[in-house]
């Protein structure tokens, strides 16, 4: 998938501080897909496991103290390497789940075209809202990412989400392979109406969504 998207991302417009030009409203960034070494992916996966643990362990206070020391050592190690958006690899490694960004759910786009974008993955302990069900605020994050990608593939990339409506049809489980598909429903001037469905591998509908992506005007952030 990377080659096609590399080209598109190179000319894509995304928000950020290191602008090198303007296209539509967004600053245009150097946004080539990041080419990382072999340790970046495992580092992100380890950080995701730490997120799972941080929301789930019940440990003695001295264990939290020891973990805090390790966390502070990591902060000291990484802090000198802070980089502007569009330069740090997180969010730009298209072959990693969630583009290698901890903000994104760790899903992998497996098909993308102007007609359809499909992504697969699982939610995990970090995403639990209650009783092992995925938090109702996490699912729109997945849909919004899909709508952004769908809009991008439909060559409507300089767009932002105007609204995102989610119907929660069934409880969404963690640690279960799921699939989401998103497509353009219709285009009206600046407005791209997008729809998506989240299903389990048996085809059971868990949630669906409709969104409005609005093409930005020059000067809009
Ligand atoms: C491969 C890369 C993948 C990346 C994925 C990442 C995707 C992430 C996408 C996002 O999450 S973007 C962040 C969340 N969204 C925002 O922060 C948007 C904040 N809102 C705005 O900036 C402005 O509202 C916006 C620029 C979108 C629109 O403002 P405008 O003043 O230019 O639009 P205007 O109010 O004139 O509305 C334009 C049309 O949209 C309609 N509209 C706007 N908001 C609407 C709304 N909420 N509901 C229904 N219709 C709406 C409006 O009626 C009108 O329709 P008509 O053209 O038919 O007259």
UniProtKB/TrEMBL annotation:
The protein's name: Acyl-coenzyme A thioesterase THEM4
Family the UniProt entry places it in: Belongs to the THEM4/THEM5 thioesterase family.
Keyword Transit peptide belongs to the record: yes
EC main group: hydrolase
Domain Thioesterase: 132-206
Pfam families tied to this protein: 4HBT
Enzyme Commission number(s): 3.1.2.2
Coiled coil region boundaries: none
Bilayer topology annotation: Peripheral membrane protein
Keyword Methyltransferase: no
Subcellular location: Cell projection, Ruffle membrane; Cytoplasm; Membrane
Catalytic reactions of this protein: tetradecanoyl-CoA + H2O = tetradecanoate + CoA + H(+); (5Z,8Z,11Z,14Z)-eicosatetraenoyl-CoA + H2O = (5Z,8Z,11Z,14Z)-eicosatetraenoate + CoA + H(+); octanoyl-CoA + H2O = octanoate + CoA + H(+); decanoyl-CoA + H2O = decanoate + CoA + H(+)
Domain of life: Bacteria
Keywords recorded for this protein, A-Z: Apoptosis, Cell membrane, Cell projection, Cytoplasm, Fatty acid metabolism, Hydrolase, Lipid metabolism, Membrane, Transit peptide
